[in-house]
Structure formats: structure tokens, C-alpha cells
Amino acid sequence: MEKVTEIKILEAAKKVFVDKGMDGARMQEIADQAGINKALLHYYFRTKAQLFDKIFSVAMESIFNPINESLENDGNLFTFIDTFVDNYITVLSENPHLPNFILNEINKNPERMVKLVSLNLNIAKLKQLIDEGIENQEIIPISMENFLVNIIGLCVFPILAKPLISAYFFVSENNNYNTFIQERKKNIPEFIKNALTVKN
Amino acid sequence: MEKVTEIKILEAAKKVFVDKGMDGARMQEIADQAGINKALLHYYFRTKAQLFDKIFSVAMESIFNPINESLENDGNLFTFIDTFVDNYITVLSENPHLPNFILNEINKNPERMVKLVSLNLNIAKLKQLIDEGIENQEIIPISMENFLVNIIGLCVFPILAKPLISAYFFVSENNNYNTFIQERKKNIPEFIKNALTVKN
DNA sequence: AGAAAAATTAACCAAATGGTTAAACCAGAT
DNA sequence: ATCTGGTTTAACCATTTGGTTAATTTTTCT
Prior knowledge:
The structure is a homodimer.
Chain A: H1 3-24, H2 27-34, H3 38-44, H4 48-72, H5 77-94, H6 98-108, H7 110-116, H8 123-135, H9 144-160, H10 162-169, H11 176-196
Helix pairs in contact in A: 1-2, 1-4, 1-6, 4-5, 5-9, 5-11, 6-7, 9-11
Chain A binds a DNA duplex (30 and 30 nucleotides) through α3.
């Protein structure tokens, strides 16, 4: 197996699959994009499903690794919020189509897709940070699940809804969507930290 | 044109399109689900694209109308938050696949899909509520765009990510995902209102 | 009742698509 | 040089799929 060819295929497959999804993707288009014959595609990855699985699991890792990495860093809850949001919005900005790709494929085939990847979120650490904060009355009571869904949702949703946000908020002005997203690197942590802070 | 047949078709088409997306949907399956012949399907809606457009625009409306309705209600910003979140999570729980369907199709074809529907969000009203709150120093400064993306994202994202949330948070326990979502009817408003409240 | 119009179906078609096959090409080993 | 193994290709195949056609059934109108 020629490594160069395999890489060309994986790059092409990633682009086509992420753009058009499993159903919309065409093996011919992947072959074209990779600059090879369609038969060669099947020579390297026997079936469309096999090639897709490879792309999907890599995609899953590249979207979940940043979460895990941030969870492994030391520091208190508030620095976690800061670094995670900044880091994650950067990652998402670089791969803006990944979230939609992953969520869509997972929703279309939950059991299979979830089983395909074995990722273990370092949840315990986060839970500890949160519970400590609650005990010391530094933050309002909140479950780890709600906290994580909130912070990820606030980062990911605007990426998923880019066409709508652009169309309804930034009709005329052109690249304002991008600055909107980048500014959220500051806005989201501020929002969350304020939400968690105990009032008096 | 037999109205009964048209309704049967639209119901079947909605189910199949929303479940499998434009690319994954099959005209034959829609015909089967509607209990009719495939030719009859084309007799009522000439092409797959035409049928899809109908389904999509109805879907868009049913997902955006609740937003607009909440925006038109009277009351201050905090009651808006309460009623909107409660109302919207109810709507989403009843149509859990709609958000993924809409976002996916829009991302796959932004210009066309956005142009397909003409919905005018009653943004001015919300902007006024927010700006008033800021002026009276009842809430922290926040742009209408960030506020709306936050509140919608907090409601919609957990619906989009159901398979992941179920798999990683509620592995063994069965229907806990649903209670998690329903509890967010209280958690989200609390979170947002706290986030907006001025500290002293 | 019977003609005209509308609704519905079975059979069919062309294009697209995932996948296969057999031959050609090309490197390194002998 | 040529044999051998892996690599690449052109041509091909079976199936699926959106869509059409012509005939049949059902309804409507007179």
C-alpha cells in the first residue's frame, strides 16, 4: 500500500464526506478529488462504508480530543472555562463543518456511530472541580451534565447555525459573522462565569 | 387532487425526509409509507426536489414560529426567558429530529435553503427589551445577537446531541435523558437570568 | 346510463452508482 | 533481462433510483 496514495484518499474522502455526508458522497467524486481511479479507491478501502467509518472516527476524535485535553489541564473551574472556550472555538473555526457532520451521522445511526468510537471523557475531574466550587459556595449548584452541555452548546451551536446567523443577523455586512464568533471567545466565558456566580 | 392523498403523502414525506435527509430519502419509501404508488407521488409533486422543498419550508416554519410567538408576547425580559424556554423545549421535545434536519440541509445548501423560506423574526422587540434592561442596569450589557444565540443554543443543542448525551451521561439508566431535558426548562432560565444579573 | 375528467396503477426507462475484473504498469529481486 | 509482487487503470456489471407512459379504475357531470 502506497502511503502517499492512502493519504490523498483520506484527505479527499474527508472533504467529500464532511461536506455531503455519507448519503450525499460519491465514490467517484472522492476518487476524482484524490486524483486516482475509482477502482483504486476500492483497492485501498474495500467499501464505501469502510472508508466512511475511518473518516468518521477520525472526525470524532478531532472534535472530542480538545474537550478531553482541556479537562486534563490543571487549574480551577474558572480557568477551565476560559481556556476551554478559547481553545474550542479556535478548533471549531478551523473545522466548521465537523460538528454538523458528526451530529447528523450520529442522529441518522445512533447505535452504530456511537459504538464506532471509544472515547472516554475525563468527566470525574470536571465533576470534582464543580462540586468543590459548590461546597465552597464559590458557584451556584449545577450538575456536571448541565454545565458541560451548556458550555459545549454555547460554543458549538453558533457554528452549526452559521448560515442562519449570517442570513438573519449579518445580511449586508460580510465577514461580521466571523468577528461575532471570535468575540464569543470572551463573551461566552463571561456569560458562564456570571451565571455560576453566587449573588448577594 | 384528492386532499386525503395529499395529506398522506405530506405526512409520509415529512417522516422520511426528516429521518433520512434529502439524500438518504427514497421516493419509493415515501410512496410505501403513504400507501400509494410511486407514480402517484410524482402525480402530486412532480419531483423529489419539489416535495422536499414543501417539507422543508413547513419544517422551518414550525421551528421558527415558536420563537416569533414568544417574541410577540408582552412582558419584561425575564418573563420572556421563562416562557420562551419552557415553550421551546416542549416544541423541540415533540419534534426532536427537526433541528438536525433543518441545520443539516441548510448547511449542505445555505443559499438555496435560506432563500426558500421568508421568515421575519420580530427582533426589534427583543432588542428593545434588552436595551431597556441594560439602561436601567437590571442586566449586564449583552448584544441581542449573543442573547438570542445563547438562549436558542442552550435549548436546541441538547436535542441535537441526544445520542451522545444518552451514551456518555445516561448509559445504564434508560429514560433519564428525557428528564434531563425536561428539567432544563427550569435550569436554563435560571442559568441565563443569573448570567444577566448585575453583581454587587 | 354514459361520456368526460380525474385519480391511481403496473410496467418501463435512462442515468447514476457502488463495486468487480482482467489487463497493464512498475518497482525491486534474481 | 526477466520474473514477481504490488499498484493502477479501463472497461464492465448489477442494482438502485428518480421519473415517465400508457392503461385502468374511480369519480363527476349531463
